[in-house]
Amino acid sequence: IAQMWVLVIIAGIGVVTLLLLLFAPHIRRYAAGAACRTASRLDGKTVLITGANTGIGKETALDLALRGARVIMACRDTEKGEEAAASIRAECPKAQVEVRELDLADTCSIRAFAQKFLREVHQLHILINNAGVMMCPYTKTVDGFEMHMGVNHLGHFLLTYLLVGLLKRSAPARIVVVSSLAHNFGWIRFHDLHSQGSYNSGLAYCQSKLANVLFARELARRLNGTDVTVNSVHPGTVNSDLTRHSTIMTILFSVFSVFLKTPREGAQTSIYCATAEELHSISGKHFSDCSPAFVAPQGRSSETARKLWDVSCEQLGIEWD
Ligand SMILES: NC(=O)C1=CN([C@@H]2O[C@H](COP(=O)(O)OP(=O)(O)OC[C@H]3O[C@@H](n4cnc5c(N)ncnc54)[C@H](OP(=O)(O)O)[C@@H]3O)[C@@H](O)[C@H]2O)C=CC1
Ligand SMILES: CC1=C(/C=C/C(C)=C/C=C/C(C)=C/C=O)C(C)(C)CCC1
């Protein structure tokens, strides 16, 4: 009987493998999701992308550079950034890409970055808040913020605050906030925003991605009439370095990689929101697979969005009306 079970298991694995191989092209096509079909050129436009040295950010940078934009890649590790820029130039010799140092886990770095940027770059048409950290062990940023909240939300909040004047002067301009489907599982824990009482790395990530959705909606409302639009994005489930802090997720993502998006596929919705002509006046919306997407009720609450805005300003020591 034991031998029979072994045979059944081997046959089962064989059948599953065969089916997977047979349907691999279909599975891949389905997993890839929607591609951005717009042919818009970006000659003469300046784009800033955070976390552009790898993953979705790097692929977004390559695509926008191919469209003729000057792409500024804001990276915390400029060596990694230069390697990414070199690989973009190898694919697109005419690419105007440059690397600048930005550590979103340090408000001094964000302020220094913005100061130099405003001195040296005189226009900004597209800002893509892409950088992110997921499920890291409990860590604080230089300013004492919990890492997910500090980098994914507060760091980008401060960066956008410092650059919004330039975006307005360069209008029409767009801001793309890379959030996630994970916002569905998040709650803004105003009583313990920095998880000092209790910490769960998954929930901390979800909270920060919900903060991204709320920030995009509230900023869109405040920028109404300025010709600067803001939309948030879920890129899909993408096989990137994002899982680096979780061994289980890293193993699962590589084993099931055929079912996941590649970083290039994951960049499509960011590219769509940054370039699609039909979105020129669309603001405060959430997109996935280059289409409008569902937002969880907690991501649609104007009250929570306003409260988060006020708390974020307070924590960063800024006034932003
Ligand atoms: N991959 C996925 O399945 C999904 C991703 N997303 C979102 O997409 C975005 C991009 O993720 P993805 O490309 O997958 O992940 P990667 O880990 O490949 O890229 C993340 C980028 O963020 C940068 N980064 C992290 N911390 C900081 C910091 N303190 N200062 C500046 N840059 C920083 C990283 O730099 P470095 O390499 O130096 O660490 C890297 O360039 C994230 O916001 C993520 O939340 C949303 C849903 C699903
Ligand atoms: C359940 C399951 C999977 C799906 C995981 C998903 C859907 C992860 C989504 C992550 C997100 C959205 C991260 C960033 O924001 C895998 C890996 C295919 C392996 C098989 C089990």
UniProtKB/TrEMBL annotation:
The keyword Amino-acid biosynthesis appears for this protein: no
InterPro entries per the UniProt record, alphabetical: NAD(P)-bd_dom_sf, SDR_fam
Record keywords: Lipid metabolism, Membrane, NADP, Oxidoreductase, Transmembrane, Transmembrane helix
EC numbers: 1.1.1.300
GO molecular function: all-trans-retinol dehydrogenase (NADP+) activity
Catalytic activity: all-trans-retinol + NADP(+) = all-trans-retinal + NADPH + H(+)
Pathway the protein takes part in: Cofactor metabolism; retinol metabolism
Domain of life of the source: Eukaryota
Residues that span the membrane, as ranges: 6-24
Enzyme class: oxidoreductase
Recorded family membership: Belongs to the short-chain dehydrogenases/reductases (SDR) family.
Descriptive protein name: NADP-retinol dehydrogenase
Organism listed in the record: Oryzias sinensis (Chinese medaka)
